[in-house]
Amino acid sequence: MIGFDIVGFMISWLTLFGIYAILSLTLNLESGTAGITNFGKVVFYGVGAYISATLTTYLVLMLNGVNVGEKPPYSVDGIILLGELGNKNPLLNIGLLVLSLVLAFIIAGVLGYLLTYPILRVGPAFVGFTLLSSGELLRIFLQHYEPVGASKGLMAIPTPFGWVAESRVREVAYLCLVLGLLALTYVVTYKLVNSPLGRTLRALRDDEIAALCLGKHVPRIKATVLFIGSGFAGMAGVLLAYYLTSVNPNMFVPAVTFNVWAMIILGGFGNLKGSLVGAAIVTFVDRALTFITPQLGITVISPDYLRWVIVGLLIVVVLIVNPKGLFPEKPIKTPAIDVVLEELRGGSK
Amino acid sequence: MIPGMQQAVMNAFQYSLFYLIFSLPLTLSYRTTKVINFAHANFITYGAYVAILLHGILGSNLMSLAVIVAFLLTGSIAVINNMLVFTPLQKRGSSPAIVMISSMGLWIAYKYLLYMITDIANYYTTKNFVSYGRITYSDVPRGSVGGIDFSQALVASLVAASLTVVLLYILLEKTKIGRAMRAVADNPSLAEISGIPRALIINLTWFICGGIVGVGGVIWTSFSGAITPEAGDSMILQVFTVGFIGGLVSLLRTGIGAVLIAAIENVGIAVLNAFFGIPVSFRPFLTFATLITTLIAFPPLGAGGGLPYRFLRRGSKK
Question: Is 0.80 topped by the overall pTM?
Fold first, then answer.
């Protein structure tokens, strides 16, 4: 081993795992449980990341009395000022984190809610394609919109724990934040999947017409699910922006969505534990490739490209070999079933 | 008169030919095989890179050579995709959505495989294959007729588009193979019972569809100023919207869609640019607006599992 920093590797892997696991849990809720072929996860992820980046950089400069008209955060002056001013006030940094998370949840959620309108009447192919192309449009828009830095993006974003001097402590604190939000996401999605709404979602996925005939308001249910899923994806985007401290349009390519798809396909459709395991495996391979390839002296092939090829092939191979994934979906046990079983055995009365 | 309008109209004509070449095979392949193939974008890019690698490594200037090689290569890729991925999945009874997701996986894998190939080619030849300039071919005529400039791309795409339309018409309407393809499209089980070799027909359809798109990719290299491994992806929105306007069923409506989208994009953005100063790079937004309008106003039913009903507003009793 040539200077292998095992703790650093673990922290970077777990942080990335936390961010991606939020995406995979909510995508599993949308696609695995509700059957909406969401190929546009990256839209809400990107919107969240850009909301936090824009909000944080502009507010930090404005609250410190800098004229952002003259020295916008994407200019060289702005970046230098951000580096000087960004990490001094703990209260401001934490406050901005909370504000970003709330705003990202609401804006990404509402965007997801609105995007369900055109796709209610059509099949999964059109749904998937519409969401996929909205991701590409977001990227084109960001590339040409000057106030968010156009194709260069925004850099030197002040982080919530930037005021902590020790870098290891800072990383661990951030990791705790990410894992805390992941736990929140898991609890919310778990409760939803095992609630009456979750069972309606499965009905909708397995037979939409039957669900409609049983009086379920299919459009509203789909919109609700996309609101929740997209909101959490927006929060994952916020976490990504603060983790990398920079955002640019090329981070949000469609391949990111399929990275998440690979996780839920590997873990198993409709199984939340599977999504966690899938996210852990895929992000581990990602981190390992990034750590190992430079040490092997391979420079011709970029680990990024290799990773995406692996992700693509993973989707195909898992679907062919084991379409149910590592953890197949299990039937839900409700209290009602226990009562029925008990009565069938003739025990209760 | 809006400045640049003549150019915009010429561009619209040029683009409608490209969209025709790219979208007709999409509709044909969906109709016959019932697979929504998102790896369609790869056929465009791989076709273009056949021409680029022939030009950059072997120094070939012949479009005819590139067209033949591209047709064989992308056609074979389509057949391999079908034999190794789509057919096994369909045989197991996977839903159309699962088959579609597998094509997404193929799309990502092929795309970044091409990035790796360009990096390796770049390493050995020190030429920049990730952004390659326009290729001027030696075997395609060009010139100016009646004040209209016929570029190589226009000549080649005009020939290719008309050949595609005419040959597809003859194939589908006049030959036994075409009748078999239509039979498989309409009722696969019945076609198989009446002795049509369904697997062979589907493979043949994939070969033809993949090949035609690859040829379109070759012609794209004589038009686009900078060809990147994203070339096909940047057109996927337009190509699929054109296909969706045709409901992925009707070849005629797909053709109309190609002209419509090309006109909306090129003429529309010229108008918006002249009056509101909207940058030309925002033209995909017009296509997206058309896509959304199509989905809301004329939801394509049936294709890809659409529902054969419309949602009624609550309380509307009529």
Answer: yes
